[in-house]
Design a protein that fits this description.
By secondary structure, this protein is of the alpha+beta class. It has two domains: 10-134 and 300-307, Rossmann fold; 144-282, Tumour Suppressor Smad4 (Sandwich). Helix content is 33%, strand content 33%. α2 packs parallel to α3 (78-88), α6 (149-164) crosses α7 and α7 (168-179) packs antiparallel against α10. The longest helix is centred in the middle third of the chain and has 16 residues, at 149-164. Pfam families: DAGK_cat (PF00781), YegS_C (PF19279).
Length: 319
């Protein structure tokens, strides 16, 4: 496993950029030009590979590792980052983060910039960090896994994006559009260390990004994540109006855990919703996964490039 250091020698590395041209505002050609202009000639080898579909991102990243590339740049949003991390986790390969998405929580967690230019700046002056990630039924996640209302929110969000374009306003509107139609809470059992807790709830999510949890105003969960744990939040609100009010408080960072959520922290959590398969959301994507859902934190599982010089933002830097 590569060792953390004060700096990373890009000139000695073979670099492959996996570019999701459909991410964010779909400026794939412009992003490709910027990558070539700023990174070609700066490493031992440089290549850009463009998966035809988002579902092929992980396969392309795995092939890049097999072809001998040392650094794989994930050029896309949080879903792209998670797909590349799935291929790189628990290998010697190093991941670089080039954000092009709407929220870019993973890039902001690592302080790698919030756009392509900022991500490239990090790659050009980086140090190596080894971080923990989350896993649910063998699938890597970087920010969160959600059950209940949130997968429905993602479906609504995609429809709103297609009609009105991608924006944070559209994303927040999708929250309201989905939650107003929620009628039936789900039965959920959370098991930690053999102890079961039973809930009737419309929303549950597991956080792995301290930055995202802080954005939502969930500081206690953020600290648990920094300590290496998973943070499970189970919404107390069952009805549509109560959920809408809670969602608006989340959007504006005013959520109080005791008012809106029960919090469970642990390194391993098992969730059973009483269904064979359930639609879940993970890092901005959605999948139908067979339960029960076994979640765990994987310490020191992913090698990533982070800024060599960290500005003081009041948050702990990746180690």
């Amino acid at each position: 496993m590569p060792q953390n250091d004060q700096s990373f020698d890009l000139s000695a590395a073979r670099v492959c950029a996996v570019l999701n041209k459909g991410s964010g505002r779909k400026n794939g050609d412009q992003n490709e030009r910027m990558l070539r202009e700023r990174l070609e000639g700066r490493s031992a080898a440089f290549e850009i590979r463009k998966p035809a579909h988002g579902s092929q991102i992980g396969k392309v990243a795995k092939q890049a590792i097999a072809d001998g590339f040392d650094v794989i740049l994930a050029v896309g949003g949080d879903g792209t980052q998670a797909a590349v991390a799935q291929a790189l986790a628990r290998t010697d390969a190093v991941m670089g983060v080039i954000p092009t998405g709407t929220f870019n929580y993973f890039a902001r967690e690592l302080r790698c910039g919030e756009d392509v230019e900022g991500g490239i700046d990090t790659i050009l002056d980086a140090r190596l960090s080894t971080i923990s990630v989350g896993e649910v039924n063998g699938r890597i996640f970087l920010n969160n896994v959600s059950f209940g209302a949130y997968p429905e929110i993602l479906q609504r969000r995609e429809a709103i994006y297609r009609r009105w374009g991608r924006s944070r306003v559209a994303a927040y509107w999708s929250v309201l559009a989905a939650l107003k139609d929620m009628r039936h809470p789900m039965s959920l059992t959370a098991s930690v260390d053999g102890v079961e807790r039973h809930y009737e709830t419309a929303l549950a999510f597991i956080g792995k990004s301290a930055f995202q949890l802080e954005t939502f105003g969930l500081d206690e969960g953020a600290q648990a994540v920094r300590d290496g744990h998973l943070a499970l939040f189970v919404a107390k609100a069952n009805g549509p109006m109560a959920l809408i009010r809670a969602a608006l408080r989340l959007a504006f960072g005013k959520t109080a855990r005791d008012d809106d959520f029960d919090l469970i922290t642990s390194d391993e959590i098992e969730i059973d919703t009483g269904r064979g398969k359930r639609l879940i959301a993970h890092d901005g994507e959605k999948s139908r996964v067979r339960g029960p859902f076994k979640l765990r934190a994987l310490p020191e599982a992913l090698n990533v490039l982070v800024p060599a010089q960290i500005r003081d933002t009041g948050r702990a830097a990746p180690s």
